[in-house]
């Protein structure tokens, strides 16, 4: 399930937001990716500042709609495979879009990505968290363990 929003004339004309208040319904990265593909889409590639702003506005509208949306990060389609750590490239350069997009746009939170065992990326959505060094944990990106439930 999820809320589908469509726009005319954009490269990605439709977006579907899936937010689960019930923690038991949240899923890991791979499950989220498969659910999007079964639905005929892909996990989100955010390819520009304008698209990032569009997504932020959609999340703000979802919050305003009285649906009770609270803390809960959202998977996006950015990840790195663990076997690339042996390369000489700096870790942040190893992240790729799951749908094959080559967009270089990134919106990392301060001090992210932390790399290590965290290889899949979320868009922060923690309105009740105390702000950190990079400000509120809202809409910037963070690498997380792929088996975390979001």
TrEMBL record:
Domain C-type lectin residues, every copy: 10-150
Signal peptide residue numbers: none
GO biological process: one example: positive regulation of axonogenesis
Protein name according to UniProt: CHODL protein
Its membrane topology: Single-pass type I membrane protein
InterPro entries linked: C-type_lectin-like, C-type_lectin-like/link_sf, C-type_lectin_domain, CTDL_fold
SUPFAM superfamilies: C-type lectin-like
Localization of this protein: Membrane
SMART domains: CLECT
PROSITE patterns: C_TYPE_LECTIN_2 (PS50041)
Keywords from the named record: Lectin, Membrane, Signal, Transmembrane, Transmembrane helix
The keyword DNA-binding belongs to this UniProt entry's keyword annotation: no
PANTHER family according to UniProt: CHONDROLECTIN, CHONDROLECTIN VARIANT CHODLFDELTAE
Entry annotated with the keyword Transmembrane: yes
Domain of life, per lineage: Eukaryota
Protein source organism: Smutsornis africanus
Cellular component terms per the entry's GO annotation: cytoplasm; membrane
